[in-house]
Structure formats: structure tokens, C-alpha cells
Amino acid sequence: MKLSAREIAGHLGGDIIGDPDVQVSSPARIEYGKQGDICFLANPKYEKYLYTTDASIVLINRSFTPKQTVRATLIAVDDAYRAVADLLEYFSSLKRLRKPGGWFFNCLRFNSIRGRAGRGTYIGEFTVVERKARIGRNCQIYPQVYIGRNVRIGDNVTIYPGVKIYHDCVVGNNCILHAGCVIGADGFGFAPLADGTYQKIRQMGNVVIEDDVEVGANTCIDRATMGSTIIRKGVKLDDLIMIAHNVEVGSDTVMAAQSGIAGSTRLGEHCVVGGQVGLGGHIHVADHTTFAAKTGLMRDWSTPGQNLMGYPAMTYMHYMRAYSAFKKSGEKSSPAKESDAAHS
Question: In the 8-state DSSP scheme, what is residue 88?
């Protein structure tokens, strides 16, 4: 599959500088671009590669002016970083192989299909759909998926191999669930007893995932003790994330890998959560809060739009001042004293 600069510029609304008929077949990073590739330049740190790349086409910002001769054909757009997201989606849509619908005719002897699915939905081999489960139209359910009793899945949902969706859970329209994620396992609820053992607290709720949510591979979202664990519209979850029971994640929030949210916490809308962030239980976090990697928050945070860092979490500027003081305190010890201390 090849696309010309003219086709790409038309799709992105860009202006061509160079040969409009040059063709590309795949996207690539600008430092590794070769003939037949399309790359992009959005970060000034990578400008040097623009003048050396062998790529056939490079997307640039309209505000950018090259300082040297460029061999590649350029397509100028308003926002190159955003345009490349549209471009990758365009390439993906052209290459994507959708399995045909008519799931009830496909490998029935390998499946256990007791629920119902809408028109145009494909269900792969060795997948189990339990009684009273309902799957919408034009879904792609890959092999070895488990869909429990009374689960509701919307239209245009993609579920990759090995996903497990426990009973009574809800998945909205246009969602993507990557391989190995688990939706609706029991929340971590145990009551300590006088003899030092623990009694399991039955988790009677469910998980509700709203529209346009993407859940990464091996991410786990636990069902609520009562009510619902809720992932609001547009949330994007990376791989290896843990969402505990009765949590609510606000709309259009993004979370990076190895993050975790303890039970009954409400994370606001449009938040950005870095890798390995930990949020304690029963707290509320304001909208538009950003967490740097490895931040730990154990209390409510009610001021919206702040950048947090450190453990316990504090504002970014507060953390940097504290770190500066901490670093200087370690420099006050002379090398001789440190040596004496090491031998004592």
C-alpha cells in the first residue's frame, strides 16, 4: 500500500513543499527514515535529522522554516504532532484486517456462544460468551476471550486475545481492550477477625466502562463492593495498571504503566498520571491534575490544574525547593568526615 504526498496532504489539510507525486508506504522516526518512509518533525531537538534523513516525506509545522537544504518533500500542517496521530490512524485504517461478521457460522465447534451479538460482529476461536451477554454491532472479539454472564458490550468494540470480562460488567461503544486485561475481578476486600484471619467481603457490584475508552494489556479493573467501579468516557489506560474497587476515573484522563489507584478514590477529569504513580484510597483528586512519575498521593487534592511530584505528593515547585535543600544538606559533609564515618 502506497500513498502519495498529494493524498496525504489532502487528508491532513497540509501544504506540499516539493514533489506532490512522491509515494510512501510506512511511517518511521525521522532519525531512521529511509526511502519510502514518511516522518515528522515537531520537537526542535530533532531538527538536525531533517537535513540528513533519507525519508521521502516529512511533516513539519507551518511555523517552521528550514535553515538548510532538505532533500525530502515537506508537508506543512498547523500541528505536526497532532497530524501524525491522524496519519497513523489513516495508515492503520487502510491496513487493518477486519474479520468478517456472521460470527455464528465461524468455528462454532471451538466456541461456547450462549449470548447474542449484533450484525457484523466477529467472534474468534475458543471464545466463551455466557448466557444473557449482549455484544453490539461491528465488534471484533479475538480468540480466547471470556465474556461473562449478563455482560453488555457496545458497538465497534475491539477485544484482543485473552481478555476476561466478568459477569454483569458493561463496556461502552468504540472501546479497545488489549490482550490479557481483566475487567471485573473481585475487589480486594477482607475483614480482619479476632483470631488474626480474614473474612472475604463479597464484591456485589460491577465495572462500567463508558465510550471511547482504551485499556492496556494486563491492566486490571476490579468490580465494586456495591455499586460500580466507573471508567468515564475517553479514558486511556496503559499496560499493567491497577484500578481498585469503587474507583471512579474521570473523563479523558490518561494513565501510564504501573500506576495504581486504591479503593473508593475519585480521580478527576482530564488528569495526567505518570508511570508508577500511586493514589491512596478514599480520596478525591481535582480535575486537570498532573502527576509526575512515581508520585504518591495519600490525601484529597482539591486545587485543579496543578502539577504534583514526590512522595508524599506536593506541587512541583515545592518539591524542587525541598529537593534542592535536601541535596545541599548532603554536600555539607566533607570527604574526610565521610571517610572517617565509613571506617568507624
Answer: H
How is the beta sheet containing 37-40 ordered, strand by strand? 15-17, 73-77, 57-61, 37-40, 26-27
Closest CA to 216 of 281, 152, 162: 162
Give whole-number Cα distances, 169 to 116, 153, 184, 206, in Å.
15, 9, 6, 5
Residue 107: pLDDT over 70: no
Helices (H), the chain: 5-12, 47-50, 80-95, 316-331, 335-343
Question: Residue 303 in 3-state DSSP?
Answer: coil
pLDDT of residue 105: 42
Given a cut of 50, whether residue 316 has pLDDT beyond it is yes
* Per-residue pLDDT tens over the stretch 204-259: 999 999 999 999 999 999 999 999 999 999 999 999 999 999 999 999 999 999 99
- Ordered by start, the domain boundaries in the chain are 3-95, 103-318
What does the pLDDT read at residue 92? 77
Does domain 3-95 correspond to CATH entry 3.30.450.190?
Answer: no
Residues with Cβ within 8 Å of residue 143, at least 6 apart in sequence: 124, 125, 126, 127, 161
CA dist., res. 241 & res. 254, Å (int)? 11
313 within 8 A of 294, measured Cβ to Cβ: no
CATH topology of domain 103-318: UDP N-Acetylglucosamine Acyltransferase; domain 1 (2.160.10)
Omega before residue 44 within 30° of 0, cis:
no
Enclosing H/E stretch for 302 = none
d(CA 5, CA 15): 10
* pLDDT higher at 256 or 343: 256
Q: What is the DSSP letter of 199?
A: E
Among residues 199, 231, 202, 227, the alpha carbon closest in space to that of 214 is found at 231
CA distance 163 to 169: 13
174: cell is 468504540
Catalytic residues: 245
